[in-house]
Amino acid sequence: MRIAARSLLFSAPLLTLVLAACAPAPIYKTTTNAVAATPAQVAQSPERYNGNAVIWGGRVVNVNNFADHSEIEVLAYPLDSSQRPKANDTGSGRFIAVTPGYAEPLNYPSGALMTVSGTLNGTRSGKVGEAPYVFPLVSTTQSHVWTAEEMRKGHNNVHFGVGLGVGIR
Prior knowledge:
alpha+beta, CATH 2.40.50.140, five-stranded mixed beta barrel, 18% helix, OMP_Slp
């Protein structure tokens, strides 16, 4: 019994370390002036956050192309430790990712999950359906649309529990 308890004591931290090592690293480096606020919080007091860096992600809602830039409307979700949007979580507002040049809508399909890195550059009033809405604007320096395979990476298939369960992937 004593040997089993000791081996369990040493193996638990090792198991935790091994499982943590399976998670991919964040894709963007966080800067010192990065904001931890959600788009909904920024929309309430944009002057407080203007000019700060953000790394936000979520689900693509719409892409609009203009003569010199494109705007990608995103329904924001919290990010995991690898900066992937947690799409099964509660949305935390909407924002518009402003990118230079032309953004091919097929590269940013409606419903796709994406993460952007950029700088907060004010807000714009608009509508979601018929409801008025304030969108924080992110001048995007980098963006990444996640594939289904990338979203699965780092999510191990080891689950602990008691009872019967059925999982569908």
